User: What shape does this take?
Amino acid sequence: MTNVLIIGATGLVGQKVTKYFLDKTDDYLTLMARNTSILSIDEKRERVVEGDVIDDEPLMEALKDNDVIFVALDSNLEQSTQRILDGMEKLGIKRILFASSMGLYNDIPVSDGASGNLTEDAILKHYQAAAQMVADSGLNYTIIRPGNFDNGQDLNYEVTADGEENKSQDVSIVSVADFVVKLAQDEKLGAKESLGISRKEA
Assistant: This one.
């Protein structure tokens, strides 16, 4: 059994990842979000910490006793990322799975419309900066760069390394959740890599 912290547990990705862990593993989960009132938990397998990661008390409470940290941030990317990394260092936690975005390395195919690439989308600069902080942290990280989410139930996905062009711009949220769970179960899988995840073309 692995103890996993999900930061951003009420977001679209966080909720799907949580469900996948519960359905596919016996792992124990800590769920952290700024507003946790929408969460319904199984107290035998989950606990909730409400708060913002920029605040020491809730962050350290959420981090303690966990083996793997999954992060899906939606705001204050650089500041929040640094707080999480600092907290992990204090507690000696080594494994972080960091959800970012496709396009950080201009890896979206031109045929899909390259407007989602870093050169065309200024907001990605914040994602790139946060991802670089994770890469420079010395931790056992995996940066996960998914394509555009859809509600498909398929597990038809492929993973591409930094510098490789993705074949597609889309991916099901289920596929992302499946990949996150695999990464959490194997500390060597994707170790110190930045990996794109997209739907595999037929």
Notes: The longest strand covers residues 140-146.
